[in-house]
Amino acid sequence: MYPLVFQKGMTAEKWYGYPKSQQILSIANELNRAQNALLKGAAGNAESAWERAFELTDLFIEGDISSGLLTEILRFRELLGEIFITHDAVAHSKLISALIRLDSTAYNMLHGRSAVL
Fold first, then answer.
1. Taking Cα atoms as reference points, which of 101, 79, 99, 100 lies closest to residue 91?
2. Angstrom distance (rounded) from CA 58 to CA 112
3. Which of 29, 39, 105, 114 is most exposed, with the fewest beta carbons within 10 Å of its own?
4. What is the pLDDT of residue 45?
């Protein structure tokens, strides 16, 4: 694992101790912060939140995930890079939704449904 720049309080042990759904929700939380900053016209704050989202995404990628999920999260990371450059708020909202849909537990937690076991 490379040294963390933005998530200084995070360790590999702590991150990988979280369930995948919580990891995805942590990334989504940073995206929500970026979206709120965009809406307020604070591009610098949005960029900081995106940088934190990149860092958490990279931690997620380093974890034990299936090849199908790895493909999807790498595509997510690519789209996050495009949004980082363009500051496209509409695409940003869609990206958050797509991220949450990568994990049924995370999706169900946000939409008030019971997780299917």
1. 79
2. 28
3. 114
4. 95
Q: Is the predicted pLDDT of residue 116 greater than 60, yes or no?
A: no
Q: Look at the block and give the residue holding tokens 């990371």.
A: 77
> What are the sequence ranges of the domains in the chain?
12-110
Share of the chain above pLDDT 70, in %: 93
78-103 residue pLDDT tens: 999 999 999 998 899 899 999 999 99
CA nearest to 23, candidates 59, 66, 52, 75: 59
d(CA 28, CA 103): 12
What is the reported pLDDT for 13? 84
